[in-house]
Design brief:
globular; Rossmann fold; binds norvaline; binds phosphoric acid mono(formamide)ester; 5-stranded parallel β-sheet; 2 domains; alpha/beta
Length: 314
């Protein structure tokens, strides 16, 4: 059956563990003779480069396609874009404004006549490829032997706007038994519905999820402090209000001092120094942001290999 990678919740913990293992496995040309279409409705530095290079690593051909070229739901429907690209490419990896576009692309290709996978390179809902890179970074730090069970009981603390990155980070962490704590002001927290589905994941792995508007409560005892921009792509008109509402939720040296003494600092990037994270923290010896960025490529290899394993077993 054709595998898709739209959201970690739908893939589940077994797939997550497999992707993690495949990320580090010796590189094999599993994409030889195939190609990956990369469609971007929004800008990207890390995702575009890491995806393209991972395809090259695995012997495939990456094709970058900007939204200006395909015009999803403007020039033609998301379904027709998916079937057109699916006529040439084994995988469509897309960064979209609306998560529903990914679901519609997946549905358009769901007949067994197609063997085309859809990969989420960030939507308004989730950023699962980033979460794999985040786990690889945590694993390097707290489980260098690669034994993921060693991550159980660690705590990741997230500060700021609880958004697409937060949701995927929380899903990934909780599936591996890592506790997640989130500090956001009212109006910027994960919805009750999201917390409820994350709580179910936490129960299965024995981890905990905690959400509060108190940054100190969240920083206390954390093994990793994580932040993302306060104004995500597409929310630019809200920047002034968001900066006002989220003031006090940035990571600074005082907050880092409230966590474990060997805590690491993470950020998916791009960073806005002086807003959600200070320059000093980003440049400190506790910062792992460049390890995270590098692991985007490792993670994409894992995702593509997991998808292509489906072909080998069919
Ligand atoms: N972290 C991340 O997805 O970065 P880009 O937006 O640059 O791809
Ligand atoms: N939350 C951010 C993540 C950027 C990688 C956004 O959606 O713009």
């Amino acid at each position: 059956m054709t595998k898709n990678f739209l959201d970690l919740e739908t893939c589940g913990p077994d797939a997550l563990m497999e992707i993690m293992a495949l990320s580090h496995a010796p590189v094999e040309p599993v994409l030889k003779g195939t190609s990956v279409a990369m469609v971007f409705e929004k800008p990207s530095a890390r995702t575009r480069s890491s995806t393209e290079m991972a395809v090259v690593d695995l012997g495939g051909h990456p094709l970058m396609i900007s939204d200006a070229e395909v015009g999803i739901d403007r020039r033609e429907s998301a379904e027709d874009v998916a079937r057109t690209l699916g006529s040439y490419h084994r995988i469509i990896a897309a960064r979209v404004n609306d998560h529903d576009v990914l679901l519609r692309m997946q549905a358009a290709l769901s007949s067994p006549l197609w063997n085309v996978s859809v990969v989420n390179l960030l939507s308004d809902f989730s950023h699962p490829c980033q979460a794999i890179a985040d786990l690889l970074t945590l694993s390097d730090e707290f489980s260098p032997s690669g034994d993921l069970t060693a991550l159980k009981g660690r705590t990741v603390a997230y500060f700021g706007d609880a958004n697409n990155v937060t949701r995927s980070l929380a899903q990934a962490a909780l599936m591996l038994g890592i506790n997640i704590k989130i500090a956001s002001p009212e109006g910027y927290q994960l919805s009750r519905e999201t917390v409820s589905s994350l709580t179910e994941m936490a129960h299965i792995s024995g981890a905990t999820i905690f959400q509060s508007d108190d940054v100190h409560e969240v920083a206390s005892g954390a093994d990793a402090l994580y932040s993302d921009v306060w104004t995500s792509m597409g929310q630019e008109s809200e920047r002034a209000q968001r900066s006002k509402d989220l003031a006090g939720y940035g990571i600074d040296e005082d907050l880092v001092a409230e966590a474990q003494s060997d805590a690491i600092v993470m950020h998916c990037l791009p960073a806005h120094r002086g807003e959600e994270i200070t320059d000093a923290v980003l440049e400190s010896s506790q910062s792992r942001v460049w390890v995270q960025a590098a692991h985007r490529r490792t993670a994409m290899r894992g995702v593509f290999r997991w998808i292509m394993e489906g072909d080998a077993h069919s």
